[in-house]
């Protein structure tokens, strides 16, 4: 006999969580499971799931701060990765879910039969692909997720000063620390175009952290250096991106 499914539930509305748990209780005889935890937002869910493994995460999509789609992208960094079932009151997400062939969904109000079928499929589904989730999400992430000592750590996007490509990684710098991302700088630029500015082929800086520019000593590739609030490090501006200095003076 297969082990009971380990489920984790995420919804910002307590009545919705309670209803989901009630329906799950009605499914117990058909599909043995245990609810290992609940959370009302994405960061809280990820904190708990760093400590205990879930086979399936059932999450609302429309939540303040971090959507269920963004949460699923961060869950993809867990090992092993849980399967994800989205819960939504909006059927346009249901269509998208089927198109990527990697996730399931429950349309609210959730029905017992539909929930049982989704959980049975989730047992066999591969975890959602990050690129598929990125296609479903219409807004930029609020957080980056980085692996740190076997855990997944969330770094708020608004705390990031710059993103610099180095070999196969991207260094993410805040005022207090550095982290490594396994993401493409080009894709990050596309996702966060309104928040980060390219100053070099290997570097994006946060627009709101940029305080000015000064002349550099090296006149080969970088004759301007970008100054960022909160750190003493000065970042080279390539000749190709030198136009950002004039744009900064004009207030972009």
Automatic annotation (TrEMBL):
Gene3D superfamilies: 3.40.50.2300, LytTr DNA-binding domain (2.40.50.1020)
The HTH LytTR-type domain, residue ranges: 144-252
Domain of life: Bacteria
Annotated InterPro entries: CheY-like_superfamily (IPR011006), LytR-like (IPR046947), LytTR_DNA-bd_dom (IPR007492), Sig_transdc_resp-reg_receiver (IPR001789)
Chain positions found as 4-aspartylphosphate: 60
Boundaries of every Response regulatory domain copy: 6-123
Keywords: Phosphoprotein
PROSITE patterns on file: HTH_LYTTR, RESPONSE_REGULATORY
Pfam families (UniProt xref): LytTR, Response_reg
Protein name according to UniProt: LytR/AlgR family response regulator transcription factor
Biological source species: Chitinimonas lacunae
């Amino acid at each position: 006999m297969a082990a009971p499914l380990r489920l984790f539930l995420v919804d910002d509305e307590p009545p919705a969580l309670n209803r989901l748990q009630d329906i799950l209780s009605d499914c117990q005889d058909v599909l043995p499971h245990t609810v290992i935890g609940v959370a009302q937002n994405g960061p809280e869910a990820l904190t708990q799931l760093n400590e205990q493994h879930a086979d399936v995460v059932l999450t609302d999509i429309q939540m303040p701060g971090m959507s269920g789609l963004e949460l699923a992208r961060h869950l993809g960094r867990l090992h092993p990765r849980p399967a994800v079932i989205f819960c939504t009151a909006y059927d346009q997400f249901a269509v998208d879910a089927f198109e990527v062939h990697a996730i399931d969904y429950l349309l609210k109000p959730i029905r017992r039969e539909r929930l049982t079928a989704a959980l049975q499929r989730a047992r066999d589904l591969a975890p959602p692909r990050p690129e598929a989730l990125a296609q479903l999400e219409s807004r930029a992430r609020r957080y980056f997720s980085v692996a740190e000592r076997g855990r997944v750590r969330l770094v708020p996007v608004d705390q990031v000063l710059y993103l610099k490509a180095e070999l196969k990684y991207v260094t993410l710098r805040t005022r207090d620390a550095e982290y490594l991302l396994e993401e493409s700088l080009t894709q990050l630029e596309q996702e966060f175009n309104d928040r980060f500015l390219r100053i070099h082929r290997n570097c994006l800086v946060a627009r709101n952290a940029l305080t000015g520019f000064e002349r550099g000593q090296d006149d080969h590739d970088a004759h301007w250096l970008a100054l960022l609030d909160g750190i003493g490090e000065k970042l080279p501006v390539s000749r190709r991106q030198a136009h950002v200095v004039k744009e900064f003076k004009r207030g972009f």
